[in-house]
Amino acid sequence: MPNFGNELPHCLLKREGKGNSRVRSRNRPVEKSERHPAQRSCRWQRVESHAIDWLRFPLAVGVVLIHAYGVSALTPAAMEGAHPLWVECCKYFRSLLSQWLPAVAVPAFFLISGRLFFKGVRQMSREVYFTKLQRRFFSLAIPYFLWNVIALVVQFLRLRWDVLTWDTAFEKFSFYVRQKGGWSVFWDSQSIGRDTHNWFGFPVEGLTAPVDVPLWFVRELMVLALLSPVIGWLLRRLRWRFLLLLMLCYVLSVWHPVHGLSTTAALFFSLGAWVSMTDRNLVELCRPHYRLSAVLLPVMLTVNQFFSMPAPISGTWQLVFILVEIVLAVNVAASLSARRRWCFPAVLTGSVFVIYAAHTVDILRACDEWLKRCWVVDTPGWLTLRYLLVVVIAIALCVLLNEMLRRLCPFLHRLLSGKR
Predict the structure, then answer these.
(1) 194 in helix, strand or coil?
(2) If you ran DSSP here, which 8-state letter would residue 344 be given?
(3) Euclidean distance between CA atoms 202 and 413, whole angstroms
């Protein structure tokens, strides 16, 4: 079990004895009978806050790993002559890092967003609602628009580099925008999910994204912020039944066809909102299940790799798998964030939004192309190493970009990173 410690904030420690001004030693454990509910709540809130801060950078790295799955792919020529077992090990390693382990990243971001959006909100009054919308306009809408514009500019510059003439570049860029649906480049011009069929045999369209693909998460957060009074009302009226309904929609793949609000977003954002509205704590909820999640996750990872789930139970299995990952991630974060030497430096945690938004704006592709020219050996082992180097270099470039913007153009940096 993680050691969260049992020390309380200095300002909340009781004084011992009548008229005695000495403060209780912080080295002596606090007995259960001596713990005040306010003290206990304050301690858990502090642990949860540190855990959330600690999680932000690993989750952003997880998103980069998801989008790096096709980088330095194992080609038939590379697998020719290699031992089949070694090839399978390389494939499993890539699937583990780019499919199974980071599957928790976006759902966890939605969960944390719902938790923070409804934190301290007893009633979603008009004043509270519009105050939160104003804050989200600066932290979500402005960065969303600017990063998509940057992605379009980079796309045009890439065309200009390829064709070497401005007229041809403008012509190809105009065709590209029309092909993507015009203004849809700012909403749903990219298909990032597979079209499937639900339990009842009806077709289900995959996820869509704007031109800067990772920002589909920000798009859905904006929609959820607009719908927050409805979500709060449903949680107050239906309570856990509303979450159960969303889980059924997730498992059965039954949802509306409108782009901009997926079942993943609605379910995990509402789950985070429920945690806040019921005065619960993420770490306190996950802590009793730490050992169980640590045992279940390796078993489920093995099943994911070697067994294919039939359609009727794949949705249920995926939901359970993500919940197990969230429980384990929250516990690990709470444990490690209590130790300062295991905390990430500020230069990394302060670059999370830029890493999330910028890595697909040609940074991953450029790193891959550069390493291909420098790296002529194409074997399964070397290609796997190159795949890891592409991820590391792309993250380092995003951190460097964030620092350059912060130091040289702080106003633009605040706009692009969602800071007011």
Answers:
(1) coil
(2) P
(3) 45
